[in-house]
Amino acid sequence: MRDLYDLTYDEVAAELGRMGEPAFRAGQVYQWLGRGAGDWPAMTNLPASLRERLSRTFRLDGLRLSERRVSAIDGTIKCAFLLQDGNLVESVLMRYRHGYSICLSSQAGCRMGCAFCASARAGFGRSLTSGEMLQQVVRFAAMEGVPVHHAVVMGIGEPLDNYTELVRFLRCLNDPRGFGMGLRHVSVSTCGLVDKMIDFTDEGLPVTLSVSLHAPNDGIRRRLMPIAARWTMDELLEACRRHTRVTGRRVTFEYALFDGVNDRPEHAEELAERIRGMLAHVNLIPANELESGGLKQSSGNAVRRFQDILAARGIQVTVRRELGSDIMAACGQLRRRLEEAKDD
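^ that's the sequence the OP posted. Answer follows.
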């Protein structure tokens, strides 16, 4: 049975047209999807007979809540959702000064194998459908009863490794007949799939592109990220420059700092030289440590020193605020624990 959330507005309209329903019904149904409806009785302005017919063809429960955690420190909420086939994904709701933001997953697991990431360690299940990504936003917002105006596709998975469904999701998320989130309030992360980055630039979607850089040179990057063996930093940075030329929007470089690996003053100097003059912003991340990962979190002094060196050389730089540290809010941590518990 197909999930109704996987359909675009035009596809919903076509399905209802085949049922002999008037055109305005498509708008009603799609509004309910934008509100995160999880069952048919919730659609109170639809005739019971239509709801019954729809329920025989489509489902609305592509996500089922498996576990919910609330941070006692900052109110961050992390949920593990169970997909229809038993795969698990994570989503995180964070509150900032500008409002609520959701971090969502694009895959159940990840194939990129980054040394510092918990997502890959629980194994790869599959890529998500556009509807499964959409439900992480609309169902989460409905469940918590808060307005959500920002989304980051930066949870479990490599979004550009799920390219077609990602683009479809973004267009559905933006559709004013449904949830209607402005794409300038959406960020998409990538570890650096250069060919897909070029395609994504040409889609013309005004989202913020975040690139997981994590190193000032190819040698360190290859140690941390297997994808660096496929594309050099020069190739990656040229794709970023092309993105800024075509879109006029800056790129965000994510840089997780690890003690003695990529956090020394000479690393900051080298990074500043590599990206000088780019329309870009560096987001420094006090990294999470993983058991048996062999990587240690940089000290607060090292993070501040790195930030100061970049700023002194004219690089826009901030340190990411840590949220939900008491509820395993980092990507993949909760999913990994739940997957391990199933195997016990």
